[in-house]
Amino acid sequence: MDKVVTSIQGLSSTDEDIQSLKTFLGKQDEVLLKAAASGQLDDAIAALDPGLHSLGMLHLLAAKSVSRFEPQRFIAQVQRFVQHCSPAQIRISSVKYCKLCRKFSDLLVELRQPLRGIATLKHAIAVFAASSPPRSSNIPPTPAAPSSSSNNNNNNVHPPSSSSSSAPSTTTTTNDSLTSGELTTMHTDLMQLCLLAKFPKPALSVLAEDFFEVSNETSAITIKDVLCYYYYGGMIYIAMKRFKDAIQCFRSVITAPAHVVSAVMLEAYKKYILVCLIELGSIPPLPKYSSSVAGRQLKTLATPYHDFASIFGNPSMSASSILAKKEGKDGRDNKEKIDLNVNNNNNNNATIGGSAASAPAGSHVDELHKVASHYAEIFQKDNNLGLVKQCIHTVYASAIKKHTQTYITLSLQDMMETVKLPSIQDAQQAVLRMIEDGEVYARINQRDGMVAFEDNPEHFDTNAIMTKLDARISSIMSINKKLRMMDDSISKNPHYVNKVLGHERIGGGGGRFPAELDEGFGDERGLGGGGGQFMGRFL
């Protein structure tokens, strides 16, 4: 090991030396694995400077990650390495870097300490972006890792402090982007840690980025990682009540080219149905570019959700007409076993409404409760019962919104009776929640029990709105430019040109995408790989 450490320290100054070091370390895998098994790597790692000897330290940590090690020491070593490593050296072995971060993430999940890795992984993504040739990225300071004792209770999670460390001096700052436009395994790992830690906000800045490249050669990313990234992203947006963004994420999963439905696609489709009902009030048809085979399979596998959506979209439909045909097959009545009252304080996903018993017979809400009760065990098993409750809340909210188009003032008593809410208190809670969410603009007079509806106070003529509009326009223009460049690059690709010319020679339609090229996306190298097997690291 002394020879390896000496070589790392002596070959980390110039670009030529680093390339020589890469060749040297590639021949030392057996030596490093033996040293890791005997516990000799810790002293070697401690002797290296992560900023100057990033490539060498990366190889040592990678060798240690595949052997037996003391978890807490390994976590501390990876955090120190990621905080100070050189982006230029990391890019030389980017695949090894991403695999090390994956091992780091898996270890924290196993230890049930996901919060400790959020800041580190976010910084690791920024380091990867700074090492990317197309553009550099602004790398934020890496906060000190919280103590392990602060992660034992996931119900009381607070963001780590950023005052205890500074950004590495080896990075350059050119913009505020955290990514290089390339999706990596680290993005998926970050989404998973944020979900497990119940701390979704750090993921929002990454989810806001646009990705134009997915390369297995630079990050060892697989279709599992791509699908899980958008699936986790959709769940994070649900937690933040950003349902439109959640719909986009889930749509990215279920429209991925595939011949067989994977577990990730099915789970995303179930949540997609419920989120569409909450946000849009109906389920929009899938885009034409989505797989028709997968679409049919998804509808068959998500029958309970389509039954619920049918009743949701048709207030005059009776639940009995649907459930009578499926009694004893898809579910059973769980009214006594599972509480569907959206006033249940033990569920934070919905807060208003009444039970099926409290809703008037024959009402829309009553029919929804019948379907929800019938499939409650399935919804609960899928961890979607909270979204179902929010769908029921949407029915009440829609009825209240209609009143804003008719009345200037309305008593809570009248609202309770017209909206079919169980009590005046439920009516007040419904209005308060909608005011907080920005769904309606109103004031409640507690003394008189009256609700006064108001117009939107935002006139969209402030400097802040104009600045935001300019930023969105600039972003769209930038995306359009990149898409044109990608289209130009594909049109000049020799493989694509040969496919198109070959298709035309055998009588294919002009301008039509070659069928054989389309089918190529469905094999194990494309987005349809996996053959329906479990495709993701689920929570």
From the structure above, extract its key features:
three-stranded antiparallel β-sheet, 539 residues, elongated, single chain, two-stranded parallel sheet, disordered C terminus, mainly alpha
Q: What is the SS-derived class?
A: mainly alpha
Main sheet, how many strands, which sense, barrel? 3 strands, antiparallel
Based on Cα principal axes, name the global outline.
elongated
- As a percent range, the share of strand residues is under 5%
Low-confidence stretches are 135-177, 330-338, 342-362, 509-539
Q: Tell me the Rg in angstroms.
A: 27 Å
Question: Please, could you describe this protein's structure?
Answer:
The chain is built from 26 helices and 5 strands. The model is unreliable at 135-177, 330-338, 342-362 and 509-539 (pLDDT under 50). A 3-stranded antiparallel β-sheet has the order 3-5-4. Strands 1-2 form a two-stranded parallel ribbon. With 539 residues, the chain is mostly helical. The radius of gyration is 27 Å and the shape is elongated.
